[in-house]
Design goal:
This protein is of the alpha/beta class. The chain contains 18 helices and 27 strands. The strands form 7 sheets. Strands 2-1-10-9-11-12-13-14-17 form a 9-stranded mixed sheet, sandwiched between helices. It has a 4-stranded parallel sheet with strand order 4-3-5-6. A 4-stranded antiparallel sheet has the order 18-19-20-21.
């Protein structure tokens, strides 16, 4: 690595190439707005760093609350210049504070954040809830857009900020009650940026476009920081602009001859769904070399549809770059090398489910399941496939938990020593090898390619966003007093290659005259409003259907199995697919008929 910290990197760029364009923001995802050269960027960063030094804030935690744009990059780097530990978090939205504030409050409390870096617009939004958020009153608020640039002259580099200094906390938890901050140092970040440069094939001529949000590790690390490490141009657009007009992402790639960009599986799917012939005629995607695809399960059918739709625009099949990663490893564990064909592995689904074995079969096999490779291990990253129960290595053809060892692995979770030990300090039982990072994800290695088959954790990932089931279950149980507290299960099922939400909720015994249709509709509305999720199926179940462990933990996977088998005792149910829920009614009728016959006999 050429640099030990991001400070050294940015100082070098601003000295050697002060007039070279670094970042440009695309207003509405289309029009060129604010831009920074390396010189103007570093001057703004030094000004914020100097202001934070005046406040003697080194070691304090600072929230970054911004709309997507260039100012969040300035604030992030300004924190690093001063030794403030940056915390990128989703910004509050006017009219939707009820949904966003609980998680924000949980992060503030967990990190004991004392500084907020933001702009005047966000400050005015949050002034509306001062009474509900007493923590705000004790925090220091800085509108970075109004910082005097003359302060840049007063910044002094702190020799105690080294590669081992904590740079930022990446909060990965979607739960409002138990958020966890991944601790990442300058070394973690710089080391991983060097990895990405090599693994993803960046060159001095590369051009990036990104809409991934800055508070997501994919958006922050590869979307925004990697172009800085490469010294290459980056165009940034808002995720809201992308969702509103997905083809503007592709138009930006076409206009600026972008080579690298990223998005989860749903991003490629929505582009296919929204594409119109007139728009296709305006696109030239021949410059696109690495179409990163990660952050949620990868659907090969979506890849095929995207290629079929946009190949006439110059998009190449080998431009797809499926990846796998997690914030605990800074970002990526594996990635497909640039301009190599994606790899698909077709395996026997029965052998996988019943025996946990990887048995490769032909695509026309009766019970086949296709898994796209998530690429090869990034540079010198080491991975072991481990039996999560015995902590021993799996056989070559077995699925196990993915364990990772590499300098990119974070230092642990902020102020959570037990969780840190469990997740970041795992050792292989029979050989003593370690420490490893336990990812909680299941997969296998074959011919140097990493495949992901599922998750040990109950985390629900839909449309690139993580959702914790306990949050959804809690929302459901507030809908009506007849819904049993702590006796619900939320999980996802795969339907036509996409993940969809299913909710199973027990009803209190001896509940009379319950309007089940209204309750189900209220559940769907509450989940939609609170979590921006559409339920695919809702089951109101009899007591005794939600299984728990001896310690009281909900067995969500067991509930999911019963749901798929149609063996839940349902009082009422609803689904987008009526055939799915009809199984319950049929089963109930059969059970009642059998009980009647036994009674009469």
């Amino acid at each position: 690595m050429k640099y030990s910290t991001l400070i050294d990197l940015l100082k070098t760029l601003s000295t050697e190439q002060p007039e070279k364009l670094a970042y440009t923001f695309l207003t509405d995802g289309k029009k060129e707005g604010e831009n920074f050269t390396y010189g103007s960027l570093e001057r703004r960063v030094r000004a914020i760093g100097a202001l934070l030094q005046k406040h003697q804030a080194k070691g304090e935690r600072g929230l970054l609350l911004y709309p997507q744009g260039l100012e969040v990059i300035v604030a992030f780097c300004g924190c690093l210049y001063s030794g403030v530990i940056a915390i990128p978090v989703p910004p509050p939205e006017a009219g939707r504070l009820k949904r966003t504030l609980p998680r924000l409050r949980a992060i503030v409390q967990d990190a004991q954040a004392s500084i907020v870096l933001t702009n005047s617009r966000i400050i005015s939004i949050l002034e509306e809830v001062d009474d509900e958020f007493p923590e705000f009153e004790t925090m220091r608020w800085i509108d970075t857009e109004s910082v005097d640039l003359e302060l840049a002259k007063e910044w002094k580099q702190d020799p105690d900020i080294t590669s081992d200094t904590l740079a930022y906390l990446q909060y990965t938890s979607g739960s409002t009650s138990t958020p966890k901050g991944v601790m990442l140092t300058h070394r973690n970040l710089i080391h991983h940026l060097d990895y990405l440069q090599r693994a993803c094939g960046y060159t001095p001529e590369s051009v990036s476009v990104t809409w991934m949000p800055y508070f997501h590790d994919y958006g922050l690390v590869e979307g925004m920081m990697e172009p800085l490490y490469n010294g290459t141009l980056c165009y940034i657009m808002s995720p809201f602009s992308f969702v509103k007009q997905p083809l503007r992402w592709l138009q930006a790639i076409s206009n600026y001859k972008a080579t690298h960009t990223q998005g989860p599986n749903f991003a490629y799917d929505i582009c296919v769904r929204r594409a119109k012939p007139k728009q296709l005629a305006t696109l030239d995607l021949s410059s696109w070399e690495a179409a990163g695809n990660a952050a949620e399960p990868i659907n090969p059918k979506v890849m095929e549809s995207f290629y079929k739709t946009f190949s006439e625009c110059g998009f190449r099949w080998n431009s797809f770059a499926p990846c796998y990663g997690l914030a605990e490893d800074t970002l990526l564990v594996s990635a497909k090398p640039k301009l190599t064909d994606p790899v698909l592995c077709t395996i026997d689904a029965i052998a996988l489910v019943e025996k946990n074995q990887v048995v490769e079969v032909s695509a026309d096999f009766a019970n086949v399941r296709a898994y796209p490779s998530c690429g090869r291990l990034v540079c010198e990253t080491q991975v072991a496939i481990i039996n999560p129960e015995t902590f021993t290595k799996c056989a070559k053809n077995e699925v196990g938990e993915i364990w990772v060892s590499d300098p990119s692995v974070a230092q642990g979770y902020w102020q959570r020593p037990d969780a840190t030990k469990e997740t970041f300090q795992a050792y292989i039982k029979d050989t003593g090898e370690g420490p490893f990072l336990r990812t909680g994800d299941l997969g296998f290695l074959k011919d140097g390619e990493l495949y992901i088959t599922g998750r040990i954790k109950d985390l629900i990932i839909i449309r690139g966003t993580n959702h914790y089931p306990q949050d959804i279950e809690w929302t459901v149980q507030q809908v009506h007093p007849a819904l049993r507290s702590d006796y619900g299960a939320a999980f996802s099922i795969e339907v036509r290659g996409d993940e969809h939400l299913v909710i199973v909720q027990e009803v209190e015994r001896r509940t009379q005259d319950l309007n089940v249709e209204k309750v189900i509709n209220d559940i769907r509305q509450a989940v939609s409003e609170e979590h921006e999720l559409q339920a695919y199926a809702v089951v109101l179940a009899k007591s005794g259907n939600i299984l728990k462990t001896a310690s009281g933990k909900i067995q969500r996977r067991a509930c999911k199995s019963n749901f798929l088998a149609g063996t839940l005792g349902a009082i009422a149910d609803w689904s987008e697919n009526p055939q799915l829920t009809s199984k319950y009614r049929q089963l109930e009728a059969e059970v009642e008929s059998l009980a009647s016959k036994m009674k009469n006999s």
